[in-house]
Structure formats: C-alpha cells, structure tokens
Structure prediction request, 436 residues.
Amino acid sequence: MNNNIGSGLWKRAKNVIPGGNMLLSKRPEMFLPDQWPAYFNKAKGCKVWDLDGNELIDMSIMGIGTNILGYGHPEVDEAVQATVTSGNMSTLNCPEEVYLAEKLVELHSWADMVRFSRSGGEANSIAIRIARAFSGRDKVAICGYHGWHDWYLSANLGDDKGLDGHLLPGLNPLGVPRNLQGTVFPFSYNNFEELESLVNLHDIGVIKMEVERNLGPKDNFLHKVRKLATERSIVLIFDECTSGFRETFGGIHKKYDVEPDMAMFGKALGNGYAIAAVIGRREIMNAAQNTFISSTFWTERIGPTAALKTLEVMEREKSWEKITQTGNSIRQGWKILADKYALPVKHWGLPALTGFTFESPQALEYKSLISQEMLAKGYLAANSVYVCTEHTKDVVDGYFDSLDPIFGLIRDCEDGRDVSDLLNGPVCHGGFARLN
Ligand code: PMP
Prediction:
C-alpha cells in the first residue's frame, strides 16, 4: 500500500503548523508514525479515501466520535447544502438555533435554556463562566477531560500530575497564568470521599464531571455527587461532549436517572458539522446575562441545521441502540480473539466507544502492529472503535477476519519473536507528554 502523498504532506505540515495539525488525536504519531496516511480525500459511510487513492474502512476513531450516523450522511448533507444555497450567514439570526434549543430542552426535562458554541472546549468554558457567575464562587472540582482552556489546564499548575487520571498525563500547562493555581481541583471517578473532602476543604462552587468514560458508576456514585451538590448549593455540570447520544437519545445521565444543573454536548450533535451546546436550568443559565459570552461564528447556520437533521435521523433510527449493540459485539469479538490466542487484554469504554489494551510491556508495539497490518488490509484500525450506524455486521465480520492472524502474530511475540522485526517504522506514542 502506497501512502507517499500523505506522509509527504505531513512533513510539510510540521514545517508550517506547530505539531502538524490542530488535534492531538489525529496526529499520525498517535497511530503509526511515518506510515499512517494522515490525510483524507473523501469520506462516506464508514469509509475513508486517502490522498494516494486507497479505500480504507474506518474501524478506529471515526473523526474522534463526530459521526454516529457515518460520514457524509445523505439527509444531513442535503439539509446543509440547502443552507449553503439559501445563505449561511447574515446580519439577522438563524431560526434553526431556536428550534434546536427547543429540541434539546424537550429531550432533557430538567433543562430550560441553551447556549451554543462550535466546539466542546468552548462549551466547557461557557458552562464554567455561567456556573461561576451564578454561584459567585471561583473554585471548581473536576473529573474528566474538559478541553484545552486556561480554566481547566490550571489544574496542573501546582502539581503537573493533577490531570494524570484525566486523559492528559504529564501535561505541562505553560502559558496558563500562574495565579489561576488553586482554582481547579481534580477528583477521581467513583471516589466520593475524595470529592467530599475537596468540598469540605475548599469553597467549591462548581462540580464538573464526565458522567462515564472508561468505567461506569459504582456504589451510587452519581446520586451521591448530586446530593452533595444540592446540599452545598454547588452547580453540578455533566460534560456529555463525548458520552451524549451514545447510549440514550440525549445525555447518558438519563440512563442513570440523575439530573445535573447544566450539561454540554458536542462531537456527535451535528454528525460531523461543528455545533456544541450548553443546556441548563433557567435560573443558572440566566447568569450568562450578568457576564459577557458572545462570538461571531456561534451564530452561523450550518451547525444548528446539521444538528436538527441529525437528531431527526437519530430518533428515527434509534441510533444509540444500534451503536451500543454493535459496540458490544465488537468487544465480544476482541474477547474471543484474546481467548483464542491466550492474550491478556483489558477492555474499556462505553459500548459505542469501545477499546482494549494488551496487558503487556509491549502494548504500544502491539497496537502499532495492528495499525500497520490492518492498514495493509484496507483498514484504519488501532485499539478502539468509535462505532457508527454504518458499521454493519458484514463490516464487523470482515474486520475480525483480518484481525485474527494479527492476534496470532502477537501471540508469537509473547512467545519470544521480536516484535521490532515485524514493525516497518517507529512505535505509536502513548500519551501527550511524549508528543511534540
Ligand atoms: N469534553 C469532553 C468530555 C471531550 O471528550 C472533549 C473532546 N474529546 C471535549 C470536552 C473537548 O471538545 P473539543 O475537542 O470539541 O474542544
């Protein structure tokens, strides 16, 4: 398989774009340095065509979770094209933002009002500003990944291990003002005592957390957090940028029957078009009017148009049920292969965002080997699948037929074969700290 054009362009990119691109998770080094195709020419359904004309089935991160309905969904694209034809921008506002706000409120009985942005990090910053304005308190307890902004990275100012358990191990918050130190306090998921002691020690006004990432709640965790927040008049925010619409029609908190005061959605809301939302209770959301939160392109029309059509298709197709079922079958497939070759494997993630890790000191080598060998067979693949409705049974079956002999190679390596003899290039990066 040729990927000369993509690799060449990535080298040029690094000369003119610091880091090569704008999103860590799409850097080729995260998958397969020097060999990953890096750029796409076309994307449709669950397929991607690279710059060298290779047709690849995406069994990896599917645009990092943006396209639950698959790439280029015909109905969503048609709605967007109609917007392009009739006009995306004007001095007046687009009506779709009102319809979308009404729809999101209808899906979440506890919420009354909505603000929109175009990225998840922005939605998180908006929510924090509103919550701080409402509570009158600066200090925030967090659990999870909430973007790149100063408010969040300040958690690593005092202790650069602050965000270690939250997807960003070893991150250096250079450029974040030092005087934000002591404003954000991380707590571990399912560790209620840790959160309670933070609340007792500091004047916490806001708790922001992902409802569920790699593990589910244990021992009534979410309900305990809700009770604590209510008792101490703390604004409770659920960051559903990634979990939203994966397992329920709306926030995954609906599954656990626990209601926050605010929630954010992003990623999948526009099926690939940029749109993110902050929803919340009326008295809290109204605090947005006591501060200043305003941006030009939060008013463009493609985002809410795409989201309205995406929600209509999701509701009709019950996409959250389909992707959960497919994700469970993929996890089952990995288990079967791991058992067949007696490889110890750890499974993680929501069913629709399912992943696994080899429990071996050579885990990154094996992940790279999978990406390399699967690429040769026409797949974008690593060790996690962000499932879309276009991942049909045939697609999944074909994927496992291709993956089976690669697990066999990994078995050989566990038995002494040198994995570096099998790899044609460097090993993938394992996290933020090693990448620059
Ligand atoms: N919150 C969560 C829970 C996320 O998963 C992400 C993205 N991975 C973000 C916020 C940030 O979203 P964005 O990359 O669109 O800024």
In short: The pocket of 4'-deoxy-4'-aminopyridoxal-5'-phosphate is lined by residues 119-121, 124, 144-147, 210, 239, 241-242, 266 (CB under 6 Å).
